[in-house]
């Protein structure tokens, strides 16, 4: 049955009584090209995955193929020699074939958010609903990747951003005082080393403390071990379960299950999931990975504003060049965060740029005032 049949899609569009307009044909051809690009995207991503994720991506590809058929049915002979798909879908497909990473899923999530089917009477309500669900599916797949990257990636992004902003502000501030380029270079290198070590130490302590806190707050199997020897009339298991958030009635029932008064179809020895800490710690990340990422990326970020002085730059030209280079790097780090968070890369990049150059401008003014006062 054709996907344009009203019986197949309740509330869907009626088959057009007259030939479609040229505008409709152009729009349908564009939709068909985009659906083909999205199907290829999910197929390419599926080839790089295994197990459940592969099956999910293939399911998305199959859904996009059904959408393709809808537009083919409407277009008939006009379904040939299609225009190029949207530019961002072309970019997505190219990146998927090369990288196949979480960044692509985050971009695909944004593409699914922008589906026009809900406002287009030529698309069926089922297709619009499919696209809304696709967004949630891709969001969930991207979330898996984000969680795996969250610890080290967070440290890397924060390290690079802090290195860019702090060392640019330091160098620009020193430049505002009017000191020589040699002093600025030494100051920048000192800021790079001190900042990288400080960031690495701070990330190590932060992540290690967070992991230890998770270990300390995770329930143990003490209730299972102690249950056989507890006083039935003064059952303190109730207190344990109430402290974990159960109501008084539920806590008492759970305690009596532990003591064998009620039958329980659960296996108490498995109530403590040994995989849970590994999954939780994976989200937090490794303390050593966070420290290493923070050190390396802070150093790389802090090196960028120093480069003009390493190659003999002086005065205002060196400050302008350093600020320009850092501005481009801030746009890149902001865009990367935007991609992973499913937000607009441009907005995140511009936000990072405004923060970084704003801090540099403030320190330059303060340096100028300080230099004038000392002089």
Note down, in words, how this protein is organized.
The protein is mostly helical and 375 residues long. The protein has 3 domains: 22-146, Ferritin (Up-down Bundle), CATH 1.20.1260; 149-216 and 279-374, no CATH class; 226-271, no CATH class. It has helices at residues 22-47, 51-75, 87-98, 102-113, 125-177, 181-217, 222-226, 237-243, 248-258, 275-284, 287-303, 307-310, 315-341, 345-374. Helix 1 (22-47) runs antiparallel to helix 2, helix 5 (125-177) packs across helix 6 and helix 6 (181-217) runs antiparallel to helix 11. The N and C termini lie far apart (86 Å). Residues 1-11 have a biased composition (Low complexity).
Note poorly predicted spans: 1-11, 267-281
Quick one: overall form?
A: flat
Order of helices and strands: HHHHHHHHHHHHHH
Distance between the termini: 86 Å
What is the CA-based Rg, rounded?
29 Å
Mean pLDDT: 76
Largest sheet: none
Strand portion, in percent? under 5%
Strand tally is 0
Structural class: mainly alpha
- Percentage of residues assigned to helices: over 70%
Number of helices: 14
Topology:
Elements: H1 22-47, H2 51-75, H3 87-98, H4 102-113, H5 125-177, H6 181-217, H7 222-226, H8 237-243, H9 248-258, H10 275-284, H11 287-303, H12 307-310, H13 315-341, H14 345-374
Helix pairs in contact: 1-2, 1-3, 2-5, 3-4, 4-5, 4-13, 5-6, 5-11, 5-13, 5-14, 6-10, 6-11, 8-9, 13-14
Provide a concise account of the structure shown.
Helix content is about 75%, strand content about 0%.
Primary descriptors:
single chain; 375 residues; mainly alpha; Ferritin; 0% strand; disordered N terminus
């Amino acid at each position: 049955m054709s996907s344009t049949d009203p019986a197949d899609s309740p509330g869907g569009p009626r088959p057009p009584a007259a030939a479609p307009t040229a505008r409709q044909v152009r729009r349908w051809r564009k939709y068909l090209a985009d659906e083909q690009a999205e199907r290829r995207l999910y197929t390419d991503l599926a080839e790089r995955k295994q197990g459940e994720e592969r099956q999910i991506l293939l399911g998305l590809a199959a859904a996009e193929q059904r959408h393709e058929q809808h537009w083919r049915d409407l277009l008939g002979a006009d379904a040939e020699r299609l225009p190029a798909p949207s530019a961002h879908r072309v970019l997505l497909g190219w990146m998927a074939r090369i990288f196949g990473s979480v960044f692509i899923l985050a971009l695909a999530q944004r593409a699914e958010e922008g589906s026009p089917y809900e406002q287009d009477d030529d698309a069926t309500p089922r297709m619009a609903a499919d696209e809304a669900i696709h967004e949630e599916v891709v969001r969930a797949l991207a979330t898996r990747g984000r969680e795996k990257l969250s610890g080290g990636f967070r440290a890397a992004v924060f390290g690079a951003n802090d290195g860019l902003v702090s060392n640019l502000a330091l160098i620009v501030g020193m430049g505002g005082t009017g000191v020589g380029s040699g002093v600025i270079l030494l100051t920048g290198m000192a800021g790079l080393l001190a900042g990288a070590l400080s960031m690495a130490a701070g990330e190590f302590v932060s992540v290690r403390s967070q992991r230890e806190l998770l270990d300390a707050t995770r329930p143990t199997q003490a209730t299972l071990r102690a249950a056989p020897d507890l006083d039935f009339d003064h059952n303190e298991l109730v207190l344990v379960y109430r402290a974990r958030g159960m109501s008084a009635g539920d806590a008492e029932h759970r305690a009596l299950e532990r003591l064998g008064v009620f039958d329980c179809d659960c296996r108490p020895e498995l109530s403590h999931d040994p995989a849970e800490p590994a999954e939780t710690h994976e989200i937090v990340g490794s303390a050593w990975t966070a420290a290493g990422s923070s050190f390396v990326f802070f150093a790389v970020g802090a090196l960028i504003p120093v480069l003009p002085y390493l190659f003999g730059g002086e005065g205002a030209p060196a400050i302008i060049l350093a600020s320009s280079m850092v501005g481009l790097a801030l746009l890149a780090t902001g865009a990367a965060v935007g991609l992973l968070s499913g937000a607009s890369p441009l907005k995140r990049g511009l936000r990072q740029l405004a923060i970084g150059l704003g801090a540099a401008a403030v320190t330059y003014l303060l340096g100028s005032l300080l230099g004038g006062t000392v002089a």
